[in-house]
Amino acid sequence: MNEQNINIDLKRINPYFGAAISVDCVVFGFDGTELKVLLMRCNMEPYVGLWSLIGDLLRVNEDLEGAAKRILKRRTGLDNVFMEQTKAFGSVDRHPLGRVITIAYYSLVKISEYELSNAPEYREAHWHNISEITELAFDHRDILDECLNLLRKHVKEAPVGFNLLPPKFTLPQLQNLYETILGKSLDKRNFRKKILKMKILKDIGETQQNVSHRPGKLYSFDEKRYESLRKDGFIFDLN
C-alpha cells in the first residue's frame, strides 16, 4: 500500500473515532426490607437537578472494569464492590454533548455494610427506593430497568442474594428478600418447597430469640455444599 492510499484510508476511518465511551454503575442495595438504588444529582443541561446513575467517561488508559471501580470509588467512596456487566447502550442522541456509548454494570450490596463517604464530593449520592423512582436523567431509566431485569433473572438462577441476609436467617426472611428483589408476592408453600428441595440450606438447630411472634427456625446458606453440587451439574432454579 503506497502513502497516498494510507492517507485516503485514514480519512475514511477517522469519523469512526468520534464517539466517546462511558461507564454507568447501577448499585442496588438491600436494607433488610426495601430494594434501593444509589443515585446522584445531575449537573448537566438539560437534566440539571434530576437524579442520575453513577457514571463517568472512560479514560484512555483504563479498561471497562477498572473504570467502573474508579467511578464507584470516586463518586461514592464505595470500594471492593461486586460488579457484573449488563449491556451497552448506544442510542445516537442519548447524550447532549455528542455521541456517547455507555457500558452498564450492576452491583448488589448490603447497605449496612457499605457506608457512603462524608467527603464533599460524595454528598450528592443517596439511596432511593426502587418503587419510588420516576424520571431520571439521560436514558438512565432504561439502563436501570435493564439492570433490574437482569438482577431478577440472576436471583432465580443462582443464590446471588444470600449475602444480603444475616449469617443466620429464617425462611420468611429469605422469602421477603426474594419478594423484594422480584417485586412480587410468592406463594409461601411453593417457595419453601423449592428452596428446601435444593438442600443448600443448613438447619443450624436454633430458633429466633427475643421476638414478639412465634420464633422461627434459623438456617444458614451452605456455600460449600452448593459449590459441590454445582460442579456435579446442579441447577439453582426458583422459576
Describe the structure.
- With 239 residues, the protein is α+β, with helices and mostly antiparallel strands.
- It has helices spanning 3-13, 64-76, 140-157, 171-182, 188-197, 223-231; strands spanning 20-30, 35-41, 51-52, 54-57, 84-89, 100-110, 125-129, 201-207, 217-221.
- The strands form two sheets. Strands 1, 2, 3, 4, 5, 6 and 7 form a seven-stranded mixed β-sheet that branches.
- A hairpin with a 4-residue loop joins strand 1 and strand 2 (35-41).
- The longest helix has 18 residues, at 140-157.
- The protein is elongated.
- Residues 1-6 have low confidence and may be disordered.
Note the topology.
Elements: H1 3-13, E1 20-30, E2 35-41, E3 51-52, E4 54-57, H2 64-76, E5 84-89, E6 100-110, E7 125-129, H3 140-157, H4 171-182, H5 188-197, E8 201-207, E9 217-221, H6 223-231
Parallel strand pairs: 1-6
Antiparallel strand pairs: 1-2, 1-4, 2-3, 2-7, 5-6, 8-9
